[in-house]
Design a protein that fits this description.
0% strand
Length: 159
């Protein structure tokens, strides 16, 4: 699905506004930005049990890898056409439930389980802009970390 220029511009403005509100986007210095992202790296790595102490470069490299994973995941959520799946699920369920050999109790339980899943899909579909904002925020973090990494001599050797 191709997004029209006006829609893309609106989305970019929305993400830019969210970025201004929710993440630190301006830094007094490169050192201030590095400190911020090293702290973020420590927070993310604290989820692991006693992570080894690493160099600044390796900490930022690991952070960039994790941010790429987050971006890919959030992008996948944002690009999926959640609302189109609802009709397909309802159609398939309707055909299944029309069968005569299904007991009333099973039919009712199946309806309840599917309704719960459909509610979640409707929720995701209705909040797609939030998902796209999160993706923009994560992309901004990733760009900043990549900028920091490019200033290290190790980065130029490994790339």
């Amino acid at each position: 699905m191709i997004m029209e220029n006006s829609q893309l511009k609106d989305l970019q403005e929305e993400v830019s506004e969210a970025t201004k509100q929710y993440i630190l986007t301006t830094f007094n210095s490169e050192n201030g930005m590095k400190t911020y992202y090293l702290q973020m790296s420590n927070i993310i790595r604290s989820a692991h049990i006693n992570p080894p102490i690493d160099t600044e470069y390796n900490s930022l490299k690991k952070l960039s890898k994790k941010l790429k994973q987050y971006c890919t995941f959030i992008q996948t959520l944002g690009e999926h056409e959640w609302d189109k799946g609802i009709a397909d699920i309802q159609k398939a369920l309707g055909i299944y439930l029309m069968q005569n050999n299904i007991e009333s109790k099973e039919r009712k339980q199946t309806n309840q389980e599917i309704a719960s899943q459909l509610q979640f899909i409707v929720f995701l579909s209705g909040n797609i802009n939030i998902i796209k904002q999160l993706h923009g925020i994560l992309q901004r973090h990733l760009s900043n970390v990549m900028l920091l990494l490019s200033s290290y001599p190790e980065h130029n050797i490994q790339e």
